[in-house]
Write a structure and sequence with these properties.
two-stranded antiparallel ribbon; Alpha-Beta Plaits
């Protein structure tokens, strides 16, 4: 599919990944950048969605700034019950990513719960309901990078404009600070988090339902970004269908005195989309997690070796996802 994709489609994907235009006629703006008509821009994007290369186009909000509690969770199941357990876990609306991976813990998912819900209790309940053999909660200790971006023209990772809520990019460590929102702002968030319709004026319906103008809607979005509630408004791709078939979670054993130094080095690699420090356990000594996407498993291995050489960290594992049970953006206040 990727080999057959026209250059203009690749360029289109690059544009909508980085920043989808928050204007009344966004497809006209995109078409202008590509030298094509508004109608053709919509037609091409519709085809890419039909082929499931594009998952959705919507706002990306900061979970913690909205008061949600979140964690990566690792569980172990017998092979014969893994898929049924994963589907049962997927029913929780706060589960956004859920993968089967190689290794002792064979199911890894992210879970977010709203204010008032206890994260530990929710994980314990899910583990008991699915009869997990083992479970580990691995919340973020340090958040070095989040930047999912692929250069579709060059077919390489392009996670350069990284987002680091712990302040490792701009020196402002504010990721754990909850930003209060009004009841009406919650209504705006509910609208902006939904997949944008492929119409000439896709934001018109959102504004009408909120009984505000489109310009006022864009002002709210701009304010959300300024306050750290919203990271950006952009497209999410199905990375495998986009040509990035390998998804490697590299886990590294890093000494405490080198935590920040190593985290920064890992985050600087454009093939690394996520980089976190997480807690260790007697049976799990790995502190740093770096997500690596490449067009092949060999590509992921090569990038991991580069990071190992740069950091001097040789104690690491590569955990590959071999089945995707769920991947979506968290829907808030639903």
């Amino acid at each position: 599919m990727v080999a057959q994709m026209e250059l203009v489609d690749r360029q289109l994907l690059n544009i909508i990944q980085s920043s989808f235009p928050l204007v009344s006629e966004p497809f006209k703006a995109i078409g202008h950048q590509l030298g094509i008509s508004e109608a053709e821009a919509i037609q091409r994007l519709a085809a890419l969605k039909k082929k499931k290369v594009v998952r959705q186009i919507s706002a990306i909000f900061d979970t913690r700034r909205l008061g949600y509690k979140t964690s990566l969770v690792a569980m172990r199941f017998p092979h014969e019950s893994l898929t049924s357990a994963a589907h049962q876990i997927n029913q929780h609306p706060g589960v956004s990513h859920n993968y089967a991976r190689n290794g002792y813990f064979n199911l890894w998912f992210t879970l977010a719960v709203p204010p008032g819900e206890v994260l530990d209790e929710t994980v314990d309940r899910l583990a008991k309901e699915t009869h997990a053999e083992a479970v580990r909660m691995m919340p973020t200790i340090r958040f070095f990078k989040l930047s999912v971006n692929f250069d579709m023209v060059e077919q390489e990772g392009a996670a350069r404009d990284d987002y680091s809520p712990d302040g490792y990019k701009d020196g402002q460590a504010n990721w754990n600070k909850v930003e209060p929102v009004t009841d009406f702002e919650i209504q705006v968030i509910r609208e902006l988090q939904e997949d944008v319709p492929l119409t000439l004026r896709p934001f018109e319906g959102m504004a009408d339902r909120l009984k505000i103008t489109e310009d006022e809607l864009f002002s709210y979005a701009k304010d959300f970004q300024k306050r750290g509630l919203m990271r950006r408004y952009s497209a999410a791709l199905h990375h495998r269908r986009a040509g990035f078939r390998a998804n490697g979670m590299a886990v590294w054993k890093v000494s405490p005195d080198r935590s920040e130094e190593v985290g920064r080095i890992m985050a600087a690699n454009p093939a690394v989309t996520h980089c976190y420090e997480r807690p260790t356990f007697p049976d799990w000594p790995y502190t740093h997690f770096s997500m690596i996407h490449a067009t092949s498993k060999e590509g992921c291995e090569e990038i991991a070796r580069e990071i190992s050489q740069q950091t001097g960290i040789t104690d690491y594992q590569m955990l590959y996802s071999y089945r995707e049970y769920k991947k979506t953006r968290v829907r808030y206040f639903v």
